[in-house]
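Deviations from the work plan: none for this task. Representative record:
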Amino acid sequence: MTTEIILAGFGGQGILFTGKILAYCGLMAGKELSWLPSYGPEMRGGTANCSVCISDDPIGSPLVANPDILIAMNGPSFNKFIDAVKPGGLVLADSSIVDEDCKRDDITYIAMPATNIASENDMNGSANMILMGRMLVESDLFDMDTVRKAMEKCIPPKRANLIDVNMKAVEIGASSK
Amino acid sequence: MKGNEALAEAAIRCGCKCFFGYPITPQTELSAYMAKRMEKSGGVFLQAESEIAAINMVLGAASTGVRAMTSSSSPGVSLKAEGISYMAGSDLPAVIINVQRGGPGLGSIQPAQSDYFQATKAMGHGDFHIMVYAPCSVQEMVDTVTLAFDKADQYRTPVMILADGLLGQMMEPVTFPEPKTDLPDKSDWAACGHENKREHHIINSLFLDAPLLEAKVLERFERYKAIEENETDAEVYMCDGAELVITAYGASARVAKSAVTKARNEGIKVGLFRPKTLWPFPVNELKEATKDAKNILDVEMSMGQMIYDVKLATECKIPTTFFGRTGGVIPTPAEVYDEIKKITGGAK
Amino acid sequence: MAVVFERPKSLLDVPTHFCPGCGHGIVHRLVCEVLDEMGIIGDTIGVVPVGCSVMSYNYFGCDVIEAPHGRAPAVATGAKRVNPDKIVFTYQGDGDLAAIGTAETVHVGTRGENIVIIFINNTTYGMTGGQMAPTTLPGQVTQTTPYGRNTDTAGYPIRVCEMMSTLSGVALAQRVAIDSVPHIREAKKAIRKAFDNQVAKRGLSIVEVLSTCPTNWGLSPDKSMEFVREKMIPYYPLGVYKDKAAEEEAAK
C-alpha cells in the first residue's frame, strides 16, 4: 500500500514543512517514505510544492505524478494538480484563498477556509497545519500521537514552543469534520 | 535527511578533512551542511572564489595526503574539468560530486542526467578515466561516499558520484556508518613536508619526455584494468526470464522500477538493470541480465547517453530502444509503462 | 681553504633548464638561502605553476606540487588549510599570476591566506616563446605584439603590488629587482620578511621580483639587466607597498 501526496501553495505557507511532518510521521510509523521538494526560484515567494510518498514497500519514483491526496493552498496550485489526482482521491483546498470550484465528482473534495480559521483562532500562519489535521482524519493516515512525535523530531529544541502551537492547529483541523 | 546533506555527513564520517565548494543549485545544501559541520569536526570548509579555485584547492589538499572533496552541479563541473584532468594526471585521490541539472549552458536547475558523456568519457583533456558511481537513493548515496573515498585512495584516482537534483533534494530515511578512524597511509607519495627524513616528493602531471609520459599513462591504464575487472556493480531487478530489460541509472532507474513493478504485476516479462558504476560500466553483468531478453529499453533523463554503453556491452545484438525526457523534465512511471507496453505488446 | 660561497642546501644539485642570463636562477637561490637560514626546508611545501618555473619541482629541495596554469594560489590554499603548521609558498610568473590566475591571486589576498607568493615579473611568457604578458610594457615588442604593445587595443600593464596592497588580507606587498647586487640583497631581505610573516601567521605576503628573459627579449644577459633598470623599474617602481609588520612596529 502506497499513499502519494502532493502539497502545493505559495512559498512561505509552510508547504515544505507540512510535507516534512508527514514524511517524519511515516518514519515514526515505521514506513518507507520519501519527500521531494520543488526548489529554486519557487522558494522566493512563488509557488512551492512537494511530493511525499508513504509506503509499506520500497519507494520507486519519489516524484508524485498522480497523487492520492492533494492539499492545495492557492489557486494556481489547485489548477495545476486537480486533474492529476487519482479517481477516488482526496483533495483539500484552503477556500480562504482558492476561489476555484472543483468540477470533479470522482474524488472527495473538502474546501475549508483554513487561513480564516487560523486568524479567528489567533494562529496566523497555521493554515497548513489545520489542513493537515483535517486531511489526517479524512484519510486515517496517521494518529495524533505519531504527528506529535514527528513534530518533536522536526522542530529544533530551541523552538520547541512551536510544537504545541502546531499541534493545536492540527487538532482544530481534525475536529472541524 | 536530504540527499545533499546526507552526502556531506557521510563524507565527514569517512574521514574527509576538507571541503572546497562554490554555490550552485541544486547542490547548495551540501556546501551549507559542510559549512555548519566541517569545522566542528576538526576539518576545513572554504567557499572558494570559483569552481576552478575549489577543485584546485582539492588538488592542493589531496596532494598532502588528506581526504578532500568538492561538489557542484553541471555547469560548475565543466569548470572543474581542468582540475580533474590534472588530478588524474598526478594520481591524486579525491571525491567530486555532481548533482546534475538540465543543460547545455546554464540550462535549468531541475534534475537531469545529461552529463553522462562528460563523466564517463571526457571529464577533461587527456588519456584518463575517473571512476563514476551512480547511486539512486539517499541511503545509497551515503554508502557510495564511503566506497568512493576508499576506491579513490586504493587506485589513486579522482572518483565522481553522479547524482542529480532529484536525489540531492529528496529526503529519505538514512543510517550512517560509524566515523572512520583508520585512514590509509599515504606517506610514500604525499607532499606534506619531508622533515629532512626522506627525498622530496613531487606531485606533477608534466612529463616533457614523450616515452616517459607514455609509460606513466600505461601504468595508469594497468590500474584502470584492475578497476574494470574488480569494481563494476549493478542492481539486477526481475531480470530472470525478462523478455524486455530496461537499463537506467540513478533517478530514472527509480522511475523505471515503479513501471517495471506495475508491469510485472500484470504478467509482463520485464526487468530492470541499473548500473551502480557507470565507469567502469558493468558489461558482464548486463550481458548476464539480458541473456533471455528480446529487447532493451534504455531510459534516461537525457537524449540518450548511456545507451551507447548499453549497445557496446551487448555488442548491438539485442534491439535497443530509447525513452528519455531532458532539460530537467523527470519521466513518470506511467510514461515508461506505456513504452513497456508498446515494446512488449502487453501481457500475453 | 675556507669555503665562503656554496650552493644552498635547499637548492638541489641538478642542472636547470633555464636559459643563460635568466633571472630564475638568482631568485631560486634567494628563496633557498632563506629556507636554509630559517631551517624550514623539511616543513615546506612549494607550489609551482605552468610556465618556465614549472620544472622548479626538480630544483627546490622541499616537497613540491605542480599546479594548473594560474591555480597555484588555490592549490597552495588547499595545502596550507589542511597543514596550517607547514610553510607553503608559490613561485609564479606574470602570465600565470596576473592573467589566467588573477582571480586566484586576488582572492588569496582578500582571504589573507597565510602563504608566500614569489612573483617573477619578466614582462613576457617565456615558456611558450615570448608572447605578450599582462606586464608587457607599452610599446614593447613581443611575438604577439610585433609592432609593440598598443595600449589602445592590448590595454595597459598591471601593477600587481599596487593592486594587491589594497586588499585587507595582504600582510606584505613589495617589489624588488635582481638587476644589481644591492637590489639582489634587498630582494633577499623581502623574501625573508615574507617567510617570517608566514611563521608569524600574518597573512598573504607577495614579493614581486623584476626579472629578466634574455632569450625572448633578444638581449644579452647584461643588456637584459639594463632593460630591467631602464625600462621596467621606471614603470614598476621598487618599494614596499604594504607591510603590516612594519606598520604594527611603527604604531608601538
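Residues 2-175 of chain A form a domain with the Pyruvate-ferredoxin Oxidoreductase; domain 3 fold (CATH 3.40.920.10).
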